[in-house]
Design goal:
461 residues, alpha+beta, Fic-like fold, Aspartate Aminotransferase, domain 1, two-stranded antiparallel sheet, 14 helices, 9 strands, Fido, ATP binding
């Protein structure tokens, strides 16, 4: 308690002194953390169940706070069963899967001694937003406009906002942002060396400082909450979930901090962390961790699964085939060409990327449409090695479903075709699935190149 008191009663970078109310919430959270530590290690299966609940709640609420339209049931159906919500924007699905990927990465790296750096922050932002897009914005004189959101890069234009009173609230300018982010990370690295550091204060204040900079064109709130929870989890706390139904209180606490009362925001974060700690302790004790509305959420999930089962089966038609080629096929082709060339062009004299579409009849008389994405790297620049690499991705459009498969080879042989995924019409490849295919192609290319080098090295022995 002495260590706790020495920090809570002292002044930190924001120059505030904690009030009695804030102190009570901080003490409650720290006491619950001690209780949680006595229950550790938690059984692996039990901890997985607890963390899945945190992860699903975190994904739903953090995205919904920013205007995502997927319900809790739709979010859970997407993440657990890859069921998309009919009639909801594709962007909303991409936001949820990207956010989930960022969370999973943070949960994984927090187990080790992974540092919090600017590069780490940009990686999180890139996982969250996936690819550039346009959003509504306002000019310096308050007029509506459009601006491009750059992924994993600091903002290129001002991202100030208009408040409810009509005033313009200004964040750091694009020119100020790099220096302010460096200052923020220097402040953080100095704080974590202090013996009396209080992780709750540190995490909450980092969240607020980050929001005041607003370093990215979009996604700052989601990134701030992920970074806050990364800090908390590094110190053995569970993530704190800001619930969408508490949105007004969350934003009110941020506005109070803007007015100089940062302790109100820290108190708000501590209150939510207390709830997370209580939930994790209950789970660790084997108690029921369902919330009052969890049954409603489960029914909402069942509704999505029910709708999916009862959807009229869409059969192959020109429109459906074109939609899949123009979205999934186009995205895959664009990204795989960039990644392959980026890594391997340096080794070869030439590379060729192509697409093709044709009607096929197999040995059983079954007719299907075939869309191919193929690429070939030919003639190694080194005269010492000889070899090439050939990779094909097939979209096979059958009557009631389509397959995505692949095979690789070289000038001498092709390996067996492998089916990657089978989907119904109306369901596109997810961003994660596209990235997985690309990663697989890069790995296969690396292994092929590695084998050529190995064979040459062995021949010299």
């Amino acid at each position: 308690m002495k260590q706790y008191e020495s920090f809570v009663f002292g002044r930190i970078a924001s120059n505030f002194v904690c009030t009695k109310c804030t102190m009570e919430e901080l003490k409650k959270a720290l006491d619950l953390k001690k209780e949680l530590d006595t229950l550790r290690p938690i059984d692996a299966e039990t901890e997985a169940i607890i963390m899945q609940k945190f992860r699903l709640d975190w994904n739903y609420h953090s995205n919904h706070l920013e205007g995502n339209t997927l319900t809790y049931g739709e979010t859970k159906a997407l993440l657990l069963f890859n069921i998309t919500a009919q009639g909801k924007p594709l962007k909303d699905h991409i936001e949820v899967t990207g956010h989930n990927q960022a969370i999973n990465w943070v949960i994984d790296v927090v187990k080790g001694d992974y540092p919090l750096t600017e590069s780490f922050i940009r990686q999180i932002h890139e996982l969250l937003l996936k690819e550039p897009y346009e959003v509504d914005a306002i000019t310096l004189d308050g007029k509506p406009t459009k601006k491009k959101v750059h992924v994993g890069k600091y903002k290129k234009t001002p991202n100030h906002v208009k408040t409810v009173t009509g005033e313009i609230f200004r964040f750091a300018t694009p020119e100020e942002t790099p220096a302010k982010m460096t200052d923020l990370l220097n402040w953080y690295n100095e704080k974590i060396t202090e013996e009396t550091v209080n992780p709750i204060l540190l995490a909450a204040e980092f969240h607020y400082k980050f929001i005041r900079i607003h370093p990215f064109d979009d996604g700052n709130g989601r990134t701030a909450r992920i970074l806050m929870n990364f800090i908390l989890m590094k110190y053995g706390f569970p993530p704190t979930i800001i619930k969408t139904e508490d949105k007004e209180n969350y934003f009110a606490a941020l506005r109070l901090a803007d007015a100089g009362n940062i302790e109100a925001f820290i108190n708000y974060i501590a209150q939510n962390l207390v709830y997370s700690l209580q939930l994790m302790i209950a789970g660790a004790k084997g108690e029921n961790i369902e919330e009052d509305d969890d049954v409603e959420k489960e029914v909402a999930l069942l509704e999505q699964r029910f709708k999916h089962l009862n959807d009229t089966i869409i059969v192959r038609n020109k429109e459906q085939v074109e939609k899949i080629i123009n979205y999934s096929g186009a995205k895959l082709f664009e990204k795989i060409e960039i990644k392959q060339k980026e890594l391997f062009n340096r080794f070869y004299e030439k590379s060729n990327f192509e697409t093709d579409f044709e009607r096929i009849e197999n040995a059983f008389g079954e007719k299907y449409d075939l869309f191919e994405i193929s690429f070939e790297f030919e003639t190694l620049k080194s005269g010492i090695l000889k070899g090439d690499f050939y990779f094909v991705i097939y979209f096979e459009f059958y009557e009631e479903k389509y397959n995505v498969s692949y095979e690789q080879g070289n000038e001498e042989e092709m390996f067996d075709e492998v089916t990657f995924v089978t989907k119904q019409y109306g369901v596109q490849l997810t961003i994660d699935e596209i990235d997985e295919i690309i990663e697989l192609s890069l790995k296969r290319h690396k292994e092929s190149f590695e084998e050529l080098i190995k064979q040459k090295e062995n021949s010299k022995k």
